[in-house]
Design a protein that fits this description.
117 residues; alpha+beta; 4-stranded antiparallel sheet; 3 helices; 4 strands; globular
């Protein structure tokens, strides 16, 4: 039996720097009513932001979640940050879904990747 999922899994590709990342690390509350639908909507919505490059997600068995969003420039990141529907979801997250979270924004200066042939 394999430890790997049968679905194709791959990280977001390495882009030519500079670009920006937003690293959102969370611990969620037990109360998740509406979270899945809102999360799916945010994933669809961010794809419409000009300069959005992609997103990676990871979740530990202990409940730590990490989402990394990749953006071509600071303007793309600012557009996402100021999106009205995203801001509403952020408020609901603080009120209901997150026990704690951190957000780190960084400018990527070096990027490379590897794919086994």
């Amino acid at each position: 039996m394999s430890d790997y999922s049968e679905a194709t899994v791959a990280p977001v590709e390495a882009y030519e720097p500079p670009y920006y990342v937003a690293v959102f690390t969370t611990v969620r509350t037990p109360h998740q009513s509406g979270y899945g639908e809102t999360n799916a909507r945010m994933e669809d919505l961010v794809k419409d932001v000009p300069g959005f490059l992609g997103m990676d997600h990871a979740q530990t068995p202990g409940g730590l979640g990490i989402t990394v969003g990749y953006f071509r420039d600071a303007d793309a990141l600012a557009e996402w940050r100021s999106n009205a529907e995203h801001r509403t979801a952020q408020k609901r997250g603080r009120a209901e879904w997150y026990e704690s979270y951190t957000l780190h924004v960084a400018k990527v200066e070096r990027s490379h990747g590897f794919t086994r042939a």
